[in-house]
Amino acid sequence: MSVTIRDVAKAADVSATTVSRVFNHSDLVHSDTQERVRNVANRMGYRPNATARSLSHGRTQTVGVILPAPHGEFFSEIIRGIDEVAQEAEHYMLISSSHYSLSESEAALQSLQGRVDGLLIMTIQADAQRGLLDEYAIDVPVVFMNNASESLPYNSFKIENRAGAYAATQHLIERGHRRIGIILGPPHSHDVRERRTGYRAALHEAGINPDAQPVIEGDFTQASGYEAGRQLLDLDALPDAVFSCNDYMAIGAMSALQKGDVRIPTDLAMAGFDDIPSAQYTTPSLTTIRVPVYDLGRRAAERLFSMIHAAEPERPRQTVLPTELIVRAST
Amino acid sequence: MSVTIRDVAKAADVSATTVSRVFNHSDLVHSDTQERVRNVANRMGYRPNATARSLSHGRTQTVGVILPAPHGEFFSEIIRGIDEVAQEAEHYMLISSSHYSLSESEAALQSLQGRVDGLLIMTIQADAQRGLLDEYAIDVPVVFMNNASESLPYNSFKIENRAGAYAATQHLIERGHRRIGIILGPPHSHDVRERRTGYRAALHEAGINPDAQPVIEGDFTQASGYEAGRQLLDLDALPDAVFSCNDYMAIGAMSALQKGDVRIPTDLAMAGFDDIPSAQYTTPSLTTIRVPVYDLGRRAAERLFSMIHAAEPERPRQTVLPTELIVRAST
DNA sequence: CGTTATGAGTGTAACGATTCGCGATGTGGC
DNA sequence: GCCACATCGCGAATCGTTACACTCATAACG
């Protein structure tokens, strides 16, 4: 086996406690002793056992992250934000993906419990959060990275889906478009529902009948966006513009449309949602609604660490993340 | 505090041993008792403490993943591959990013030791692997996700960088291009060096002087590719074609060039490397060298678990991942 | 000189689970 | 009536570390 604290203690002719102190509260031990212990430890290749350490003082130096998926630029940016903060706080990231499934996400919540100091979670269905923490007796701090029902005493972040989609659609209307289609995301997604609502509200307000517009289903992937683009091409008449519920699908759709000789934005204007990094490098660059994705990761993580370090439990807060219309060349 | 195994034992009127047996070697306890214990455990919300369990039988159910960065479609796909396998094996992923720094990556290697059952690592400099595992007395299985020096007894995967870059460049030459620039990645990257070598070899073989071609530096990001594109526009004469050391930079460069009214592929042909998911959805779609990125993650993880479960230490193998030229519309 | 502080270090009991050896039952078969 | 077997309890050890309550010397002080 590997070398333990007692081996070092014996070799350095001190007690295990002293060795432990050297590595933790080094101010409590004489500098000579300290040096001797460190030398011996290095020579023997001693590495404190993280697991034992965790068991002993109840901290794992790890935060759990539950996301619908571990890949793609959206989640990727969230992870980057969390990673940044976690490294500063000397914590590790335990990433678990729920594959857009509610049950998997609850399973992860349960089984991560006990191996992390706190949890960052993004669910697909907001209503699924109802009583979740009580139900599974979660006793570590939890921050939801998407909107919890406001009545729940959970920390959460809320993306302004409705307002964003409204702004995007309104922008398309202002550009003179009347026939404006939509590409939807996964049907159970709360974000998608809210975005659709915003889209419909804008149309309605402009005297355009939302129910007369082309609606195409997608699943947030580029591939599904591409497929959506092909479906648009098959329509009797192309819409003037399309609002896509996320950027990835918008990019996929633009690709299909352009292959079908549709010029963007001349023949059809396209707007997306999220403002993922790639959105500004498409041709034409993509008009979209900026969501501070990286910030979401950062701030959620910061909140979590603040809770972890707090002596008193803090009052849960629901933070709203503002969205912003970014007009680029696709509209 | 949370409910322990002894609490459950007391409530179910059995011994702690029995409760432990129920959750581990359930065949040793009567089915009636088992059911009773499970019911009580559920009712009380008992979750075995993962940390204590790990300490006890020396397994953490966790694998460590060290990558240059946790985001972007390339690393993202690797993570997806690993995640898939890890979930099957009921293991968690502890992700640590080295920010393209050698020292950070070694620090991660050290500090992850003891909290994981195995490690998957991707370094930027292959020579940095020399003796790494011995030096830090790593005693868990390790798989390198990029090429280790062949002489080292490490498990590793090797991307055919040279052959890939060679094929891409040759393809550009076959298309009739003579002036073929290159966009480089981070200077210390082993992959970049090999890709550049392949590029130069192809040029040389076709009687084209590699030293007379435009060389632009990048750092693998879309932003740096965009900047590279602008630099190309500033040249006295545009090259006929450009080979970019990865797709992200190719995408950025295309964006800048197209904004400068350069038509692709008519005025300039562009080839990338990696075949990240987005590569097929650009306009024009990107000719590139496919690297089985997702498979890399999968196979590295599979290898790792095979080592973790193996009774005898296995003989290290170096696996070569073949690359493939994917011709699309950008050339 | 006796009393207190203070610094340096020790011993031991947790932390929560697993595991082992053994022993104590009870049951059924022959 | 005896034996094998299944089921379960009990105590103790183990995993490696940290926290708590001490001891022991030396210095400082009035």
Automatic annotation (TrEMBL), chains A, B:
Pfam families: LacI (PF00356), Peripla_BP_3 (PF13377). Keywords: DNA-binding, Transcription, Transcription regulation. The keyword Transcription regulation applies. GO terms for molecular function: DNA-binding transcription factor activity; transcription cis-regulatory region binding. It comes from Longimonas halophila. The keyword NAD does not apply. This is LacI family transcriptional regulator. Residues 3-57 form the HTH lacI-type domain. InterPro entries: HTH_LacI, LacI/GalR-like_sensor, Lambda_DNA-bd_dom_sf, Peripla_BP_I. It comes from the Bacteria. Gene3D superfamilies: 3.40.50.2300, lambda repressor-like DNA-binding domains.
